[in-house]
Design goal:
Number of strands: 8
Strand order of the largest sheet: 5-4-3-6-8-7
Strand content: 5-15%
């Protein structure tokens, strides 16, 4: 067991870690610009480009449903200045998250080395480097890569303060700073931080409580402006309108499958294989923990229980709270995923598996990685539907007087990113519905307003390009009446000329306007 110090790494360790980072960088560059932006990514870019003052107004303005935007602004602000320097192409925008992901891998190495030793540290860094779940959010223009980084840094500084009884104040302060930065990135990180803060109490290490309270105090001081003046209204917004369903036991299995592969809804055979691989890995990990914890040193046992707690507790806590107010999303649990990778690194390097079993477990892990990377690199349906190809095809046939009307915001924002010069409009969500999440202040910040119905959206149009995302049967059942009404009006006012389909994006050209357009009245 190596001493948990901050000493210099050996040349061999430096070379291996550098090779791991090169591999990680290469894996995160694959298809970086080819996969289309989806709604959330397009929102990130369109929102961040407006500037800090506009974003602050678009977030903090109070509406009847609470705050305008449910997420804090640290990631958007950082993205704003990043785009100001490097540009707004998909490659340039996503490169920001790629680089954050590389720093996270290095932080995972530091944490795992201090928990166990350098060998496990390198193994954990390698597993994180090739993990499709982490690659997914290192390639996505959202805040979850930054969330992962701050959670790992908060965990690392906490562990160093927790295990070092002398001169630990600086580490507790750093823990508080990273905790505050976590909350400024994504508030759901609070569930992981809560689990982390419970460690000294559960372990009855009362000497750590003064330092822990110092760290919490620092976090509260840094986070106080948002905590007292913005967060309450954001919680009201989430309570009144949020799209997440109540999670079931099956949600936990989906989370585990996502951690092992990727967070996409892919086909049944691959899903079952990915879930089976995840369950087998979890089985061997728990088995070896039960067999080995009494045979290892007290320090190693504490490290294993610490990592296991941070893998399980945030998931369980978020799941339980979500039975009352649904907040459960896999990507917000990325900190738990990283702790799972640390535990798997211990299993494969120090877990005491017989060599043949170790090869089998490693092979199962590679199968899970292969499934995840395949779908991550080839996915071209919702949410990353072919919006760029659609707007390119429309542009080639564009005539003066044309209007693109999106059936909802999910296709509208990505299409606006890819075709800013085309006249585009979209139909608002049903007021008060769970998916009514793009508030009027946010629309004002984007300068992109929803229309009440297709009749209003078609104002002044000579031809209409009607865009829908092919819904699932369950989704269609919810929107069938509204969808049918919109189509009926279009077909009564225009002649359907031609329908095109690119994967799950369906767009129809309506031309030869047959009746005068009433721009002021919507169908009831």
């Amino acid at each position: 067991m190596e001493s948990a110090t901050l000493g210099f790494m050996t040349r061999r360790t430096t070379l291996i870690l550098s090779a791991i980072l090169v591999i990680a960088f290469a894996l995160r560059l694959i298809q970086l610009s080819e996969r289309d932006f989806w709604y959330d990514e397009a929102f990130s870019v369109l929102f961040a480009e407006t500037g800090v003052e506009s974003m602050l107004t678009g977030t903090t303005t109070i509406t009847p449903n609470g705050a305008s935007e449910p997420h804090p602004l640290l990631y958007y602000t950082a993205l704003h200045y990043w785009m100001w320097i490097v540009g707004q192409s998909p490659f340039a925008v996503r490169l920001f998250n790629v680089l954050i992901g590389l720093v996270t891998i290095y932080a995972v190495f530091l944490l795992s080395r201090d928990l166990f030793d350098t060998r496990i540290g390198l193994s954990a860094a390698f597993i994180t480097a090739i993990a499709p779940f982490h690659i997914q959010y290192s390639q996505e223009a959202r805040m979850y890569s930054l969330l992962a980084l701050f959670l790992v840094l908060a965990t690392w500084t906490f562990w160093r303060a927790y295990r070092i009884e002398k001169r630990a104040v600086g580490w507790w302060i750093a823990f508080g700073v990273f905790g505050a930065l976590t909350l400024y990135t994504q508030q759901l990180g609070a569930f992981y931080l809560a689990a982390l803060a419970c460690v000294p109490i559960i372990a009855r290490r009362w000497h750590a409580l003064p330092g822990l309270l110092t760290g919490i105090g620092v976090a509260v001081i840094f986070y106080a402006p948002w905590l007292f003046f913005v967060l309450p209204n954001q919680l009201v917004s989430i309570s009144n309108a949020y799209w997440i369903p109540v999670p079931s036991i099956a949600s936990l299995l989906v989370t585990l499958r996502s951690f092992a592969t990727v967070n996409l809804t892919y086909g049944t055979p691959s899903t079952l294989i990915g879930l089976g691989a995840a369950l087998i890995l979890l089985f061997f990990m728990i088995l070896q923990l039960l067999l080995r914890t009494r045979r290892v040193s007290a320090t190693t046992r504490d490290s294993l229980l610490f990592a296991l707690w941070l893998f399980i507790a945030p998931i369980a806590l978020l799941w339980v709270v979500s039975q009352l107010r649904p907040l459960y999303i896999d990507r917000a649990l990325i900190g738990s995923a990283l702790m799972l990778y640390v535990l798997l690194a211990w299993l494969l390097t120090r877990g005491g598996l017989p060599r043949p079993i170790s090869f089998i477990v490693g092979g199962i892990g590679i199968i899970a990685v292969g499934i995840g990377l395949f779908y991550q690199y080839t996915w071209s349906n919702f949410p990353s539907s072919p919006f760029q190809a659609m707007t390119t095809q429309i542009t080639q046939q564009w005539l003066q007087g044309d209007v693109i009307i999106h059936q909802d915001k999910l296709s509208a924002l990505p299409s606006r990113y890819y075709a800013r010069d085309l006249t585009q409009r979209y139909i608002r969500d049903e007021p008060g519905a769970a998916d009514d999440t793009l508030s009027m202040p946010a629309q004002q910040t984007l300068n992109f307003y929803a229309d009440a119905c297709v009749r209003v959206a078609a104002r002044g149009a000579e031809r209409v390009w009607w865009v829908v995302l092919s819904p699932t049967p369950a989704q269609y059942a919810l929107i069938q009446e509204l969808f049918t009404t919109q189509i009926a009006w279009l077909e009564a006012s225009f002649a359907a000329r031609e329908t095109y389909q690119l994967n799950d994006v369906i767009f129809t050209l309506y031309s030869n306007r047959m009746t005068p357009l009433d721009e002021g009245v919507c169908e009831s």
